[in-house]
Write a structure and sequence with these properties.
Blueprint lengths: L1 H9 L9 H17 L15 H8 L6 H13 L7 H13 L8 H11 L6 H13 L3 H14 L1 H8 L2 H13 L3 H13 L6 H13 L3 H13 L6 H13 L3 H13 L8 H13 L3 H13 L6 H13 L3 H13 L6 H13 L3 H13 L6 H13 L3 H14 L5 H13 L3 H13 L6 H13 L9 H4 L5 H17 L21 H5 L8 H4 L12 H8 L27 H15 L3 H13 L6 H13 L3 H13 L6 H13 L3 H13 L6 H13 L3 H13 L6 H13 L3 H13 L6 H33 L1
Helix pairs in contact: 2-3, 3-5, 4-5, 5-6, 5-7, 6-8, 7-8, 7-10, 8-9, 10-11, 10-12, 11-12, 12-14, 14-15, 14-16, 15-16, 15-31, 16-17, 16-18, 17-18, 18-19, 18-20, 20-21, 20-22, 21-22, 22-23, 22-24, 24-25, 24-26, 25-26, 26-32, 32-33, 32-34, 34-35, 34-36, 36-37, 36-38, 38-39, 38-40, 39-40, ...
């Protein structure tokens, strides 16, 4: 019996009795929850003070809605005798943030009440949940205000516990996901001012967002601030910064970061993304030869180039008119089974069109379609524009018409391309009809199209026909702005001039165009990196020794020469905000200068520069072209000096005009030196530059050099155009070298270049020269016969 009784006691399932106070709190919490779950809530009367345990039971009850919990909390705090604990505040705040939808309006007053009652009333996780709720709902101002409340009410010690780097990181990342870049930047800088280093992920994503938004000043400022604070850059950070500075043309900074990155190993090691960014920086700076050498080193190191590196190189080679190199890289890309996409094909297609290799461009397009790569609107736009620019206007119109009939691959840019070419050919009426058709198809008529038509109207002698555009362009807000600008310009041009500048040069200058080398290189180069490169310490195990050598000379890039842009300046800056005024100035400069009205163009330039508008390279080049053509070389030098004073970067067109001016002065040798400087700065020779220099050398009687330059042009992959052949025929004919002139005529016909009126004039001169030589030979023969007969 004793053993049986012991077994019953050991397996007993009885539980200890619940204390009366805890049971009372549970019953009270149940009653309160029932009362406040009603609508409207019925506030009960309590015999004594509300216990904290009962209040927590109510606030933590999952079945009770957040609004009911808030009503209970307000009743409890207003009835007297109840002082909420930090746990009660946290429970209510979390309930409000987790409600669907979250109850946001009472969040901030409740947070302020909690922080005022006790510095430790809100724990960091609860505080972060409040901020996340505000940000998810788009209430960014409330989130920032909550941060300010924590600084103001919690005290320095408690605020340091709430406003941790982790808190800031989560908020910064959330703001970036909501595209709130300015607020994210403000918060991160706030953390840096507090002498706390932010999380690497937040910094990297913020830097990447600034680069993508092209906010260069903010990017550089944050980069400098992080560097000064001792922030440890990881591989991702270095890659972002190298890519950003490289894409903005700051090659020296990009290479210095690469050098710094390699010195931090093995914690930070360059990867394929790093090399992609460096190659991209070299291509943007025009250092195509260096980029190709680095590309070769990367391949030999065992790294396999990806699609991004191939596209970067193809783009850089095409931009620098080294299309044969671009084709070679493209073939290597296919050989290594890296599939080219539409963007790569479009880049190479555009490059082939630029160097007048129309047949190869068409073959590439057919290959693109046969490989299953879907052509885009951009692909067809490149084709149509290339056909027009390569003298195949009929084919361009046929392709455009067929695409319209199919109802695909035609956008506003397609119409703009065709309108521009129609206006250049003087077919303004057809261009206006196309503008009307553009709107009928629901496409926007942009400023490029409108200004092209304006130039066409003025070119055809219809000075007062700008208002005719109202009949064709009705649904755009752009045209009224254009007409309003034109009216303001007319009134400014008719207004009396300031006579204080009478008898003063518009572009004062000291020196002449012969001093061009000092303009290109304002400060002489003091770089001794080449001489000391062998003495510098080298990494014998480096995968890219040539790139390391470039990185050692990072300080020499861009420090002692005039800035050079990659492309010819555009009349209209489509992607540049706030450029409407200068775009219109460029348009009317083109109109005035085409009519030979140089004085009007100069007055327009002076008026708008006085009003504070910053001229661009296209603006200066327009005036410079007219001054050079008219032989006003002293004024041309003044324009270049003004351009340098205002730190306006020169482009390839600027150098072309400089070479033209030097050619007129008979300084062909100096022109060649200018081109050497252009090449050293990453510039390139396009077909216009080749034609200009061939003409300058030919006029100076340096025919052998002009012939070598022609061979260099063909060898670089650029097909000569009718201007090239006309120039060569002319300079050889005038030098009395009829056979060579006739040889270039045959080459011209073999290349499929259609002669123009200049060719006819040149051939007339050539025929006269041939007759003169025949007469000369006949007279010599007759003189010999007379001598023999005697």
């Amino acid at each position: 019996m004793r053993h049986g009784g012991g077994r019953r006691a050991f397996f007993s399932t009885q539980t200890p009795s619940t204390p009366a106070s805890e049971l009372g709190d549970l019953l009270l919490a149940a009653a309160l929850s029932k009362s406040f779950s009603r609508s409207p809530p019925a506030a009960p009367a309590l015999d004594g003070p509300l216990h904290e345990a009962a209040a927590l039971h109510v606030l933590r009850r999952p079945s009770l809605p957040a609004a009911s919990k808030l009503s209970f909390f307000r009743w409890a705090t207003s009835s007297g005798g109840y002082s909420p604990s930090p746990a009660a505040f946290s429970a209510l705040l979390r309930s409000l943030t987790r409600s669907r939808p979250p109850l946001l309006d009472p969040l901030r007053p409740l947070l302020r009440q909690a922080l005022s009652s006790s510095p430790a009333a809100v724990d960091p996780p609860t505080f972060r949940s409040v901020l996340d709720a505000f940000i998810r709902s788009g209430r960014f101002d409330s989130a920032i205000a909550a941060l300010d409340d924590a600084e103001e009410l919690a005290g320095s010690r408690a605020a340091a516990g709430l406003l941790t780097p982790r808190t800031y990181t989560s908020i910064v990342l959330a703001l970036l996901q909501k595209s709130q870049l300015p607020l994210a930047l403000v918060l991160l800088r706030k953390l840096l001012r507090a002498s706390a280093l932010p999380d690497t992920l937040a910094c990297n994503q913020l830097l990447a967002a600034l680069r993508k938004a092209d906010r260069r000043d903010e990017f550089r400022s944050l980069f400098d601030e992080l560097s000064q604070k001792g922030f440890l850059f990881d591989t991702w950070t270095y890659n972002i910064c190298i890519h950003a500075f490289g894409s903005w043309g700051q090659l020296g900074v990009a290479l210095s970061l690469f050098k710094e990155m390699k010195s931090k190993g093995p914690r930070v090691v360059p990867d394929l993304c790093t090399y992609n960014s460096v190659v991209g920086a070299l291509c943007v700076a025009g250092k195509i030869a260096d980029a190709l050498i680095v590309y070769k080193e990367i391949k030999e190191s065992g790294l396999e180039p990806d699609k991004f590196m191939y596209h970067t190189l193809i783009y850089g080679c095409c931009k620098a008119f080294r299309v044969d190199e671009a084709v070679r890289v493209f073939n290597e890309m296919e050989y290594n089974n890296v599939r080219a996409d539409t963007v790569v094909y479009n880049t190479l297609l555009d490059g082939l069109m630029k160097v007048r290799k129309l047949d190869k461009a068409c073959q590439l397009f057919e290959r693109m379609v046969s490989d299953g790569i879907r052509a885009s609107c951009c692909s067809y736009n490149i084709l149509i524009d290339g056909l027009f620019k390569n003298g195949r206007q009929a084919a361009g119109f046929v392709l455009f018409t067929e695409l319209k009939k199919k109802g695909q691959f035609v956008d506003a840019i397609t119409y703009s391309i065709v309108v521009q070419h129609l206006c250049k050919e003087g077919r303004v009426v057809e261009a206006l009809e196309l503008v009307k058709e553009t709107e009928e198809r629901g496409l926007a008529v942009d400023l490029v199209t409108i200004t092209s038509v304006l130039i066409g109207l003025h070119k055809s002698g219809r000075w007062d026909s700008s208002e005719q555009l109202l009949k064709y362009v009705r649904d755009t807000a752009m045209l009224p702005n254009v007409l309003r600008w034109k009216a303001n310009m007319d009134s400014l041009m008719k207004a009396p001039q300031d006579k204080g500048k009478d008898y003063t040069a518009m572009f004062p200058s000291a020196g002449s165009l012969s001093d061009i080398m000092s303009w290109i290189n304002p400060t002489p180069s003091t770089d001794t990196a080449d001489a000391n490169s062998e003495a510098e310490s080298k990494d014998e195990w480096s995968l890219t020794p040539y790139l390391d050598k470039l990185a050692d000379k990072c300080d020499s890039f861009g420090t002692n020469s005039r800035p050079l842009t990659d492309f010819r300046g555009l009349r209209v800056q489509e992607k540049r905000g706030g450029s409407f005024d200068i775009d219109m100035v460029n348009t009317y400069l083109s109109i005035f200068l085409a009519k030979g009205k140089l004085s009007l163009a100069c007055k327009l330039f002076e008026i708008f520069t006085t009003l504070g508008r910053e001229p661009m390279s296209y603006t200066y080049n327009s005036l410079l072209s007219s001054f050079v053509k008219k032989g006003y070389l002293a004024d041309a030098w003044g324009i270049l000096e003004d351009m340098g004073d205002k730190n306006c970067p020169a482009d390839i067109a600027t150098y072309n005009l400089i070479v033209q001016g030097l050619g007129k002065m008979g300084k062909a040798e100096l022109a060649c030196a200018v081109l050497d400087q252009l090449s050293s700065k990453g510039g390139y020779l396009d077909i216009v530059m080749y034609n200009t220099l061939i003409h300058a050398l030919g006029r100076a009687g340096r025919l052998d050099e002009s012939n070598k330059l022609f061979e260099q042009m063909v060898g670089s992959g650029i097909n000569p155009d009718v201007v090239t052949f006309n120039t060569l025929i002319e300079v050889h004919a005038k030098a009395g070298k009829v056979k060579e002139a006739y040889m270039f005529l045959r080459k011209m016909l073999a290349a499929g270049c259609s002669p123009n009126h200049v060719t006819d004039t040149t051939l007339d001169f050539l025929e006269m020269e041939i007759e003169r030589l025949r007469y000369q030979k006949a007279s010599i023969k007759r003189d010999r016969e007379e001598v023999d007969s005697e």
